[in-house]
Design brief:
single chain; alpha+beta; Immunoglobulin-like; eight-stranded mixed β-sheet; four-stranded antiparallel β-sheet; 3 helices; 14% helix
Length: 313
């Protein structure tokens, strides 16, 4: 029965992702590098500082030399964020300047693994917390570098909370060590909502997104909806179908639930599809962007992080 559920889930996933695939043939001879933006602004309990990382694109067909990887990071740019009241210039700092006792915390905020972060990454951040961060506000990003100006806008939507967390027996064969997490959401009626989430556990303490990290409310708009919230797993960490999406009993569990806007959803929806559809016969997927004059994402999050405990059976 469990194998049937997994097969059904796979078929439905393929059908869903196929519907959003765009056929695109890249120009493999393009030599001009574009600026790639990765920036986020969060509001809510446990929100991370606002930050932006700038890199340069590389040709679609190319070899990445680890020794030159650090050259892709863009330095000496002017990066500002307007929150509707004030324009704040983000401060540039590089990871080799961060004190050793703070590096783990910085890596966690940026979603990096300290053991593999050998490159000296430079970040632009609102270190002093000058930006007013709240739901319902629009944020305009402006990047000036190498004679180019890049712009983008994002919003932080109203937060829609999770509640009624319940631990349940996983489907299929009973387990003494694993549990399924079920949650409820009361989705607002008449408003299109978009969501993303991350999880962490005692055994894997860094918050990471699942393979399919975003959803909209197309099937539950305006409803009280209960659904299983799968545990995120690292790519390349091995796949165990009997434990996929389940939590270990006895673990502390962290769930970071986020509200995002449409452009932010489109970016992760296409990015997740591209990341999950590799192979020699996979078609190229053009990842959506909201950056004018460049590539990437400037995205707002309405966030809350829930701390749970998965009890022994």
């Amino acid at each position: 029965m469990k194998n049937f559920h997994l097969a059904l889930w796979a078929i439905l996933s393929i059908a869903f992702w196929s519907s959003c695939e765009q056929s695109y043939t890249p120009d493999t001879f393009e030599t001009q590098q574009e600026i790639v933006v990765e920036g986020y602004i969060e509001a809510g309990p446990g929100a991370n500082p606002t930050y932006v990382i700038l890199t340069k694109s590389i040709p679609f067909l190319s070899t990445i030399d680890p020794n030159k990887f650090s050259e892709l990071f863009v330095k000496d740019a002017k990066v500002t964020v307007n929150d509707g009241l004030n324009t704040v210039e983000l401060i540039e700092f590089c990871l080799d300047e961060v004190p050793d006792d703070l590096k783990d915390e910085v890596y966690a905020v940026l979603g990096l693994n300290p053991d593999s972060a050998a490159v000296n990454i430079c970040v632009y951040a609102d270190i002093l917390g000058q930006i007013k961060k709240e739901s319902g506000r629009k944020y305009d990003l402006n990047v000036t570098v190498d004679g180019k100006v890049l712009t983008a806008s994002t919003t932080i939507p109203k937060y829609v909370e999770l509640y009624d967390f319940k631990w349940a027996e996983p489907p299929g064969k009973p387990s003494d060590t694993l549990a399924e997490l079920n949650v409820k959401i009361n989705d607002p009626l008449g408003v299109k909502n978009y969501y993303r989430y991350f999880t962490a556990t005692t055994s894997d303490p860094q918050l990471i997104p699942p393979f399919g990290s975003v959803t909209d409310d197309a099937i539950f708009n305006g409803q009280t909806f209960e659904f299983p919230l799968q545990r995120a797993q690292r790519r390349g960490g091995g796949f165990n179908p009997d434990a996929f999406g389940l939590y270990k009993r006895g673990d502390s569990v962290f769930v970071k639930w986020c509200g995002i806007d449409k452009a932010h959803f489109d970016f992760w929806n296409t990015r997740d599809f591209a990341a999950n559809s590799g192979g020699p016969f996979a078609s190229y997927t053009r990842i959506s962007t909201n950056i004018n004059g460049g590539l990437g994402i400037w995205g707002g999050y309405a966030v809350n992080t829930y701390r749970l405990y998965c009890p022994p059976k």
